[in-house]
Design goal:
alpha+beta, two-stranded antiparallel sheet
């Protein structure tokens, strides 16, 4: 028998290998597609975040589009209810995010996140976060109420103001101030009236990162396909022929 005959490869059906590939190959492809979809979503959110602020009338905005990240301008006055969102750190320093009700001259009131403030040295002390008096024009972006999904039903906080809370569901805020919309406003910077450290950034992973993850999943899918095909072809020669005979 010649060397070419000894080196010929034949398809060998290995059901275990095919089952393994049949299970994991769709998973890898699905993960890659999911990352591409996430990258597209993040690209749209990033473009929305970077757009210039549009001076829309607050009543029209409430009746229309309150999508997350949309810029908004409000003219009105701060109210007295202040919530201190606990367990917020900046640069490793413990502190609070200050949530205050804002009453526009037209339209419903809205909770405004005024930014981060450092916590006093002891837990029995709270920072002085009374807002400035007067009528101001503030700029910010629409945001969700701070309700982490990992937390279950939390008891409603009571006591004097400012009130320390772990989260602020909309129903809790509406119990104090009826008529609040389903979103809040984050001030756009520390120079806004009544702001603290309000250096927000879009809370999202960049689209390029998702594209990179997608490329990795698709590369794993290609590698799995190649390895499956290569492993399914086996050399047969004189020794294998004799064994089969």
């Amino acid at each position: 028998m010649s060397d070419s005959q000894r080196q010929r490869r034949y398809w060998h059906f290995d059901w275990r290998l095919l089952v393994f590939s049949g299970v994991f190959l769709p998973v890898l492809i699905s993960l890659g597609i999911w990352q591409l979809n996430r990258a597209e979503e993040k690209q749209k959110l990033l473009a929305q975040w970077q757009q210039e602020a549009v001076h829309l009338e607050w009543p029209d905005m409430v009746a229309g589009d309150l999508s997350n990240g949309r810029p908004v301008t409000l003219t009105g006055a701060y109210g007295k209810p202040n919530w201190l969102l606990d367990n917020r750190t900046r640069d490793g320093v413990p502190g609070y995010e200050v949530l205050t009700v804002f009453h526009p001259l037209a339209g419903p009131p809205v909770v405004v996140n005024r930014g981060w403030v450092q916590a006093p040295r002891t837990r029995d002390q709270l920072p002085d976060v009374d807002p400035p008096d007067g009528v101001f024009t503030v700029e910010g972006r629409i945001s969700d109420y701070p309700v982490p999904p990992v937390l279950g039903d939390q008891p409603m906080a009571t006591g004097p103001w400012p009130r320390r809370v772990q989260s602020l569901p909309p129903e809790v805020a509406r119990a104090e101030v009826p008529g609040l919309p389903g979103r809040i406003v984050r001030l756009s910077g520390h120079l806004q009236p009544g702001a603290y450290r309000a250096d927000w950034e879009p809370d999202l992973m960049g689209p390029q990162t998702h594209y990179g993850y997608a490329a990795q999943w698709f590369a794993l899918a290609v590698a799995l396909t190649i390895l499956t095909v290569v492993a399914s072809y086996r050399k047969t020669g004189a020794n294998n022929d004799n064994d089969n005979g």
